Amino acid sequence: MTKGMSVQDxxxxxxxxxxxxxxxxxxxxxxxxxxPDTVVPAFITKPEQADQLVLNEHCHHNLAAYLPGLxxxxxxxxxxxxxxxxxxxNLIKENQFDRENLHIIGVPxxxxxxxxxxxxxxxxxEM
Length: 127
Known about the structure:
By secondary structure, the chain is an alpha/beta fold. The chain has helices spanning about 5-20, 80-95; strands at about 25-30, 40-45, 75-80, 100-105. It is built from 2 helices and 4 strands.
C-alpha cells in the first residue's frame, strides 16, 4: 500500500488510471447510497467519476452479478473482495464472462463477515 493512503484512495487512483489510459471502459464498484450508511453499485465510465468509489463495511453486494449484463461492453474492471472473486471465477467457468475482457482489482473484504472464511480475493490482476 502507498504510504499514507487508504485502500479507498488507492482504489480510486487505480480506477482513474485504468479509465484515463483506456485500459477499461467501465469500472464496477460501490458508491455511497442516498440514505446514510448505505452503498449501491457504481458503474464508473469517466476518470473524474472515480472519486465516487467507496470501500467500507457496507460494501457487501456481490458485484459479480452485474458482469453478465456488461459482457458486450468491452473491457471491464471490477472491485473484487473474496466473495466477489469466487463468483467471478464461477462466471468465467460457466462462460458467462470472458476473462480477457476483465480486469480484477482485488481488495480485502471490508465487512469482516464471520460467515465468509476468505476475506481476500482468490483471483485478481492486482491487489
